[in-house]
Specification:
- There is one protein chain.
- With 677 residues, the chain is an alpha+beta fold.
- Among the domains are: 239 residues, Sandwich (Jelly Rolls), CATH 2.60.120; 70 residues, no CATH class.
- The chain has ten helices and 35 strands.
Length: 677
């Protein structure tokens, strides 16, 4: 959960409160800023719907060739917005409350306006903006663009590097054009640019053991940037050193660099302290309007910022780093150091020329027990511990501190329930090393359903067993756990541990948040929290620009059919023989009628394991005996195409060819490659 001002926590838990929203738009060059708030003399904010998930937004809009993160509707009855161009603007969406006369908000990372539409109808004139967040920006580009990111990483090879450094390369924005150490007020320069691009540890000397006032480290790029990702390997062990961050205004003139502007009434931000602690850290700032290029050590002209020593007292040991990246909006920080989180794993992973950046990030994360949090200064990775028992937040129907409107509780078995990791292809020879992880509870319910993963870099049974345990922990963590709708909680984050105490059913459920949907409309200020590994396709709430207040919020997630997203694995998977008995897959308990907590209702969904498999293999879909219609089984687009073609009698060769053509067409138009039917 994001850190909130105490006044926000009090306001959002109060029996009555005053919602407050603010939208802050910045042009791509940061030269123009436009702000709109709900307490403006003319409140232009009619509707904001924002969605976020672990690796994307999942909001599909008819006629849009991309996945949308947010929809913003601004009142335009006076035509004041008609001639404004918002495309390419970055927008911070700030959610908050008026607390004792003061507006206080919280926000996540910036989003980018990619489409705008002017809507004109009788009694309704408004501007509609569609945005994508940094996840969807990553899902829209290829990983190898500009050859900044290596096309492969191999354990034991020249490209060997750990997961945390791969994530820096993927999410850090890009390599610096100049990284320069200067001593004695620019009397001596040392070029550290090559070392700042290298994954070798502690090879970038930022400040020496004998650091003195006037020592400087320069960071330069040919384009403007507002984030640095620095892997600090060593800091001064005693003594002290004060650093001032500055930017160039041209001709060797420098001004103090401002910190990243905080959300209105939110927690203050500060510059990175290079002497505080080791680890991968983010330095973030607002792009200055008078930032100009300069040249240092004959390197440039580049946009430079610098860290300058202004005071020092007997420092011991040098300040050393390894990778340093600079980006616009993008940055990466590793917040935790648990020994089991997997950030130091050395994978063997190959990308293809047209592999999407977002998919590679998801694949690399699958080696770990880390979760990625998209925050206002960039991506933060943290250890997701299945043994956590203290929730980040509790929703309690009766006693609070935060109530909810409705709650669906899902209980599912773990599939697969046996993970086998081997070091070689079992089709050619016995594997040299192997490891196994089991989920005994699931096996006792439905038998053993294994999955085998080939990891060529595995060089011991212990390493194989460790990776198998990581993969099984991911399966257990992502068992479907439910969905709730509640009054707005402005600090909730994806990956938060959420507890829902439901007095209607008498159940308490604790799960990891996987998706969040927030909605502001007249009379509606609500949040939907989805827990567990299920992914829901999100629809836009299509109320008019001046919706009437409603006594009970309608669900934002209008499509509640769950469809399976395979565990993203960057390795070859061999599907072992599986046991497919008829049995319970999911039990979903839906809370009772709102306002009638003593009358619970229960819906039990009994789905045989082999119905879906039989439909996929034969093309014959089961029929609902009540409606006479085919039952929708949550197939991906490729799977549904295979079902339809088998029903037409096509050969497997022809089916494979048609699927390849369909996939190529979808890649050409962008968006998801696999969608539910």
């Amino acid at each position: 959960m994001r850190t909130l001002h105490a006044d926000i926590t009090t306001a959002q838990q109060a029996a009555s409160n005053t919602p407050y929203m603010k939208l802050v738009f910045h042009s791509f060059d940061r030269a123009t800023t436009r702000s709109y708030a709900t307490d403006d003399s003319t409140n232009r904010i009619l509707q904001v719907q924002q969605s976020e998930g672990r690796f994307g937004s999942y909001t599909l809009v008819e006629g849009k060739p991309f996945v949308v993160s947010s929809l913003i509707r601004l009142q335009n009855s006076d035509s004041a917005l008609s001639d404004l161009d918002f495309k390419g603007y970055r927008v911070y969406i700030e959610w908050g409350y008026n607390a004792s006369g003061t507006n206080r908000t919280s926000r996540a990372g910036p989003e980018i306006v990619v489409s705008q539409e002017l809507i004109s109808a009788a009694g309704a004139v408004y501007l509609e903006l569609f945005t994508i967040n940094l996840w969807e920006r990553a899902n829209a580009v290829y990983v190898n663009v500009a050859n900044v990111v290596p096309q492969f990483w191999e354990q034991g090879g020249a490209s060997e590097t750990k997961v945390s450094h791969i994530l820096m390369q993927l999410l850090g924005g890009g390599e610096l054009d100049a990284a320069i150490r200067s001593t004695s007020s620019d009397s001596v320069f040392v070029d550290e640019t090559a070392d700042a691009k290298s994954v070798a540890l502690a090879d970038v000397g930022m400040f020496t053991t004998a650091a003195s006032v006037g020592d400087i480290f320069y960071f330069g790029k040919s384009t403007v940037f507002d984030r640095l990702s620095i892997d600090i390997n060593q800091i001064i062990s005693s003594g002290s050193m004060t650093i001032l961050w500055e930017y160039s205004t041209g001709s060797n003139n420098w001004s103090t660099l401002g910190v990243l502007t905080a959300s209105e009434g939110g927690q203050a931000t500060s510059h990175l302290d290079l002497t505080a602690s080791i680890g991968i850290k983010i330095e973030a700032w607002d792009v200055p309007s008078d930032w100009a290029t300069d040249t240092k050590n004959s390197q440039g002209p580049f946009y430079y910022i610098r860290a300058r020593v202004t005071a020092v007292s007997s420092p011991v040991t040098a300040t050393l780093a390894s990778l340093i990246f600079g980006g616009l909006d993008f940055a990466f920080q590793l917040d935790t150091t648990d020994s089991s989180q997997g950030d130091d794993y050395l994978p063997t992973y190959h990308t293809q020329p047209q592999t999407k950046l977002g998919q590679v990030i998801e694949d690399i994360m699958s080696y770990t027990l880390l979760g990625l949090f998209l925050q206002e200064d960039g991506f933060h990775a943290r250890f997701i511990d299945n043994d956590d028992v203290s929730p980040d937040f509790t929703y309690n129907l009766i006693t609070g501190p935060h109530t909810f409107y409705n709650h669906n509780e899902g209980q599912g078995v773990v599939i697969p329930n046996r993970i086998v990791v081997v070091s070689g292809d079992l089709g050619s020879a016995p594997a040299s090393f192997s490891g196994v992880a089991n989920n005994a509870a699931s096996q006792a319910e439905i038998g053993v359903i294994p999955r085998i993963h080939v990891q060529l870099e595995i060089d011991s049974d212990g390493d194989a067993a460790t990776l198998a345990s990581v993969l099984m922990a991911q399966q257990v963590r992502d068992t479907i756990q439910g969905r709730l709708e509640a009054p707005m909680h402005v600090g909730e984050e994806v990956w938060d541990l959420v507890r829902a105490v439901d007095d209607r059913t008498g159940h308490t459920v604790v799960g990891r948040c996987s998706q969040i949907i927030r909605l502001y409309q007249s009379g509606r200020y609500i949040i939907q929290v989805i827990m567990g590994g299920a992914i829901y396709a999100i629809d836009i709430v299509n109320a008019g620009p001046t919706p009437a207040p409603e006594p009970e919020p309608a669900p934002i997630v209008e499509t509640i059919q769950v469809f399976d997203i395979p565990l993203a694995q960057p390795r070859r998977t061999i599907d072992a023989p599986t046991i497919s008995p008829f049995g319970r897959i999911e039990q979903q308990i839906t809370g009772g009628v709102i306002g009638v907590p003593d009358v619970p209702t229960q819906e039990i969904f009994l789905v045989p394991l082999n119905v879906r498999e039989r439909a996929f293999e034969t093309g014959i879909r089961p029929i609902d005996p009540f409606t006479g219609e085919s039952i929708r089984l949550g197939f991906t687009e490729n799977e549904q195409l295979a079902v339809d073609l088998r029903a037409m009698g096509l050969s497997e060769t022809d089916i494979a060819r048609e699927i390849n053509r369909s996939t190529a067409r979808r890649r050409g138009r962008g968006g998801f490659e696999e969608l539910p039917r």
